[in-house]
Amino acid sequence: SQRVGEWLRSQHCKMVKDVTLGQHILIEGYDEDNPYVAKVTRLYGDENGQQMKAVVQWFMRVSELPVNKLKLLGREPHPQEIFYYECRNCDNEVNVESILRPVKHLDSNDPFPDSSDKDTLYVKLSWDSKVFGVVNSTVMESPAEPAPASSPPSSTPRGPSRRVLPTPDHAIMQKASLGEVGCSSVGTPANVEAESLHSATKLSASKCLSAKRRNATARTPGVRKRLELSSECSHKDFKMQPLCRTREQQGFLYISNTKSPEVENEKSPMVTETPRSSKRKSAMVVSSRIKKQLNLLENDQDLNSSGEEEDEFVPSKNDLLSSSEEEGQDEDGPNIDDQVSAKKFRYVATGSGNSRSKRKSYSSARTQRRTPAKKISPGTPKTPRHATPSIPIRSLQTQQPANILEEARARLHVSSVPESLPCREQEFQDIYSFVESKIIDNTGGCMYISGVPGTGKTATVHEVIRCLQHAADMDEIPSFHFIEINGMKMTDPHQAYVQILQKLTGQKATPDHAAVLLEKRFSNLAPRKETIVMLVDELDLLWTRKQNVMYNLFDWPTRRHARLVVLTIANTMDLPERIMINRVASRLGLTRMSFQPYSFKQLQEIIMSRLNKLKAFEEDALQLVSRKVAALSGDARRCLDICRRATEICEHSAADPSSTGLVGMSHVMEALNEMFSSAYITAIRCASTQEQLFLRAAIAEFRRLGLEEATFQQVFVQHQALCRIEGLRPIGVSEGLAVCQRLGACRLLLLEPSHLGVLQHIRLNVSQDDIFYALKAD
Amino acid sequence: IIKSRPGARCEFQWPSSVAPGHCVCRHLLELLRRTAIHGESNSVLIVGPRGAGKTMLLQCVLRDLQKEEKVQKNLLQVHLSGLLQTDDRTALKEITRQLHLENVVGDKVFGSFAENLAFLLEALKKGNRSSSCPVLFVLDEFDLFAHHKNQTLLYNLFDVSQSAQAPIAVVGVTCRLDVLELLEKRVKSRFSHRQIHLLSSLNFTQYLERVWTQLSLPDSFPDKKFAQEWNAGVKTLCEDKSVEEVLQRHFNSSKDFRSLHMLLMLCLSRVSVAKPTIKPADLLEASRMCFADATANMLHGLSILELCLVIAIKHLNDVYEGEPFNLQMVHNEFKKFLHRKSNSMYNFEQPVVMKAFEHLQQLELIRPVDGSSAKVQREYQLMRLTLDHSQIMDALQKYPQCPTDVKQWAMSAFG
Description:
Chain B: Its main location: nucleus. Chain B: Component of the origin recognition complex (ORC) that binds origins of replication. Chain B: Keywords: ATP-binding, DNA replication, DNA-binding, Nucleotide-binding, Nucleus. The structure holds 2 protein chains of 2 kinds. By secondary structure, chain A is of the alpha/beta class. Chain A is built from 31 helices and 16 strands. In chain A, helix 3 crosses helix 4, helix 5 crosses helix 13 and helix 15 packs antiparallel against helix 25. Chain B is 53% helix and 8% strand. Chain B contains 20 helices and 7 strands. Chains A and B meet through helix 15, helix 18, helix 25, helix 27 and helix 28 of A and helix 1, helix 5, helix 7, helix 9 and strand 5 of B.
């Protein structure tokens, strides 16, 4: 197991080996096409040596910037442009595991070259989440501290990664031991091979992700470069000064950091329980020294290296990795001296180290020529192909309100944003503190807000967000990202994923793909993420049979790294109990809030605050409106609409000399009547004689039958009798049907489909009393 | 010389005479003008029975509005009909088309429903009260939009009209009085609850006046002499007692101007160069055509056997008080009649009777009872008569050469 550990450690450290301080690197994000960009400022291992960490300075890609802020740039961003990210509250510590590969960058003031090199990024401006700024050159050249002494467990990449530890690979371990010791092989080569194949498949299934990542590393030019260097070095060294070779190889392996333990192992292969710490210390001293050397080497290499070299190398790597038979032969050959075999092993180890399984790395090496282009092209930020549409600009200016009534009407319109939200102070405070605490703690959570329509739920949340945004602007709280979705504004619950993704990143995707991306984003430890505050309006419309949309919405905030605050709004108070299955309701939690319908005092206050000392209404009139609305629904929208209508009526009657110019009781009464009175009575009064007779006939027939329903034929008989009583000429069946259809069209009657003719059933849609009242008053 | 037909004049002119129109007209005009000029978002429903002039009112208001210079270039119009845009998807496409927004996306094939909605909402959201051009949405047959899934379109339109986005006016036109009950509570809350009820409360004298104004020729008519003669003719026509009676009957039946126009058009189509005036007889004839009972007329085309079957059915209905019947019962009833008469003249085979019965079914004079399965043999399938007894008796009176014994059989109380 010791060996396994060593081997695995070496595997893991391979990744880090090509990263130096001050280098720009790509870091794995939730989006495979656009990995994060950052610059390494420090490397260290954490306390227990389990994880390697890197401290980085982040850069923003164009695609990561908020879409609405892009216009601040004032020009088309270059697709390869990145921005120096100045933000205090982001997590600038990353696991080295997540580092993908280094990239080139240019931070000059030169214009963007039109080079097609997709791997070069340009830094021109900085971005502090609010505005763009010019990059401070001193900032850019932040010291690439070699930092052996300064950082406590300084830059000693070591220790198997969390990912690697739990499942040691037996086959590779065996092979390692085979190669290492050469003669002390435990199994026949064929046996080994079969085993390795077997485990390789097992491996690929279980460790797909990490293997993939390593492949990606293997593919990058940087890795190739360094591999080549090392191979050259070692070849040369082997030939010329065999003693020094180990040293060089140590140097090479140092970042992969297998050297020192390996040496120990070579010396005492049977040692299984070596105290690690002692090894560590020595390793540290050695490695820090080696590191300096390596840096020197790399610098040289960087100067000399060119594309041809890389290309030249590819086949050789292929050869190296091509087959395990080769290896087997080598191992079989007894005449090969120890050193060579040891070296061979190291070759193999380095080669295979790039990926967990040989087969994988082989295939990756084979496809590596193709892959770079494919791999990098999606990295270019897509130009917004979705041109934003807009309503044409009006040709004439809008007129400003000319008199008090018009001014009042403008202020009373529901759409006008009030300066403050009166009567919702408590709710405001609750939501504010909830969201604020979550933002400050960098945690996530859900809140459910209910209330009947027009009680200011959405308005309050918007107000909260506005205040928080202001606080964030003033640097009182960390900045956050606000997105809003509305169940009514999408065609299908699953579109929620699409909209969230689009609002978060500007990406477009199908619902399924969007769900996967979001899942990844919220579950992965994605560095430098701001807290996301999400408002989900009209939650009940996101209901699906399996409720997976709701489930995900409430599950994401519970993830450790999600930093997502979800505020949900719906009308019914018991929605979680009524429509949600247990696992969804449980995740929603118990943070509930319900908005009570406004009382008449509150409504009055709302109107007053909107009018803001504008004298347009009489006191009594306002009170009447608010009392009436409070008694009916408590819907503030309704209240405002009535007031608005009252101002119109007042304006019309302004010609009347007795009017004071204020909206009085009479105007409000008229508006109330218009809006609340039912039109049925008037409609019956205005109906033609035969239509009225038909209604009476229907009632007569219902009374006769003792039912609330009759066929047309039955009613028609009554109708003809009534006609005779009234002294009218009885109408024919066709005409009677026409009368009946007309009543049905305005829904005074409820009818069956008309093709049934005289057999269709008839019911009344108004109460019989209403009909009598309407007809008697005639 | 063929003179220009006055019939072409038979179009409806709105604001001239209808009493409630004036106030209502002003309300709507003011509302739309404010949207156009002040950028104030509004929503309104025009409710009234069929033929009350809802669309006419709207067109009239829009016509007046377009005359104002300030409004002319400042109002985009989108006309939708619930009968044409049967779901939100087609409605959105139509809106995008009418707003000419599809040009913005260039050659991009217009994507999914979801994209479409997001696209339109984005477009409306980007606007604001002061700078964007107001959009007028006219939703004809508004009640049908309320049946769309989730009422997404209505919610979004009303939501835009109640938020600080592009100014829009939503005008719904419907004949359902209970239209507000169709709206979901959230949609309802966002609707401004302005309803214009268009109910005609006109009385008979006004109705007569309308007939007169509709028929008379204006002073601007080129042939002055003819116009004078024609108008005099119309005046005498309106004063005629029988004409008044006919018009009264029409008025009693419906105040709908469309049915009046139908009647007057029938009269006018009888006018020719040779006969340049409308005679009261023409009106009576036209009225008779209007009130003609179509199903009763169909009975005239039946064969004697089929007519006998209808009479047998009528007797069965009398006996069993409208319970459904089948062919066997009808045939039995018919055979009883034949037996009594001991007249072999109508002695038909069963298949012939069945054929006649099926013909009645094809004419929809009889209709299978709902839910009666096709498994039942045709002779025993239960049927109902879709005729009223009065219709049968009327038809018998007019049936050409109806045998007297059949007539007597029909008249008799029991078969």
